[in-house]
Specification:
Elements: H1 2-23, H2 25-32, H3 42-45, E1 67-68, E2 85-87, H4 91-96, E3 114-120, H5 127-138, E4 143-146, H6 148-153, H7 155-163, E5 167-170, H8 177-180, H9 184-202, E6 205-206, E7 208-209, H10 223-230, E8 233-234, E9 239-240, H11 251-261, E10 270-276, H12 282-297, E11 301-302
Parallel strand pairs: 1-2, 3-4, 3-10, 3-11, 4-5, 7-8, 9-10
Antiparallel strand pairs: 2-6
This protein binds zinc ion.
């Protein structure tokens, strides 16, 4: 019927988009930056013709602190490090609307020492909610790099992350290195799939990305230009509680690691701290209050990762 016909049409468009991605990287590099400055789209139709295309954001409860990218990404140079950034469109929706996918140049925010608490590999049903409770207690924002299949399993936890004003980033669909890193095509497929899953839960999608394992050592030279052309901004880290390593540190050791690592001068005044929020990371949950207090005592404020966050190294 009409609805299923529309869904099929959308799926076909998406499939087409993915094929284009895989077949022609060069097309991305030239075509993605091709801006259509004639913005007669969303804003003009919003108030008047509700039936034709109702603004999907109107029905969502977007936290008022959040920044939703405009059509041309012109509103992402911020002065507040606590504002999460999202896009109302997926990549293939941008392509269908002939909107730019590549971000404009954004100056990194380097004023004052900022700590970015990042939590990868969730959301799970236990440790992620516990982390959210702690962040709420301290009034501190965090950034959650989520895995698509974990979002499918725990959509309510993703919604809570969003509703409580934290940032959400893409961390692939299944986190399997042997499926992600043979080719940029596989990688991009997992990113767009995860974008769709995230958007189905919260109504918007992230622009920020953390590649599983970190880009250092995982990415070939092919990855950065593709990510740039598609508007994804990747951030590795420069501090770590080592909770995904063989060391299996105690909570006290984790606090000590962060103390030591933040004694060094960090790129862009940014302490980007790698932690994990999935099963088995109970020590990280236990360490978090101590880490927050340590950083507060050292004069850090807390921010969320956005496209303007400095690179960690
Ligand atoms: Zn990970």
């Amino acid at each position: 019927m009409e609805v299923s016909g529309a869904i099929i049409a959308l799926k076909l468009m998406k499939l087409k988009f993915l094929m284009v991605c895989s077949l022609a990287l060069t097309m991305f590099l030239t075509g993605c930056g091709d801006k259509n400055n004639d913005s007669e789209n969303a804003e003009a139709t919003q108030p008047a013709v509700e039936e034709a295309e109702p603004d999907p954001l109107a029905s969502l409860n977007i936290p008022e602190n959040d920044v939703i990218a405009d059509d041309t990404y012109s509103n992402l140079q911020l002065t507040d490090v606590k504002k999460p950034v999202y896009d109302r469109y997926t990549l293939w929706e941008r392509q269908a609307k002939n909107l730019p996918m590549q971000l404009p140049e954004i100056t990194p925010y380097t004023e004052g020492k900022v700590a970015y608490l990042t939590f990868d590999d969730g959301p799970d049903a236990k440790n992620t909610p516990a982390i959210l409770d702690i962040l709420k207690n301290y009034g501190v924002p965090g950034t959650f790099y989520v895995v698509g299949q974990m979002v499918e399993a725990n959509p309510d936890v993703l919604k809570r992350i969003f509703d409580e004003g934290h940032a959400i980033g893409n961390h692939s669909y299944n986190h399997e290195y042997n499926q992600l890193y043979p080719s940029t095509e596989n990688f991009l497929k997992q990113l767009t799939k995860t974008d769709d899953i995230i958007k189905s839960v919260i109504g918007v999608r992230p622009l920020i990305l953390r590649t599983p394992g970190g880009q250092w050592g995982m990415w070939t030279d092919d990855y950065p230009p593709l990510m740039k052309a598609c508007g994804y901004v990747e951030h590795d880290w420069n501090c770590s509680v080592e909770d995904a390593t063989y060391k299996r540190p105690s909570a006290q050791q984790m606090i000590k690691y962060i103390d030591q690592q933040t004694n060094e001068e960090l790129n862009g005044n940014a302490a980007i701290i790698l932690m994990h929020s999935n099963g088995g990371k109970e020590n990280t949950v236990s360490a978090l209050p101590g880490i927050i207090e340590l950083l507060q005592n050292k004069g850090y404020t807390f921010g969320v990762i956005t496209p303007m966050t400095p690179q960690p190294y």
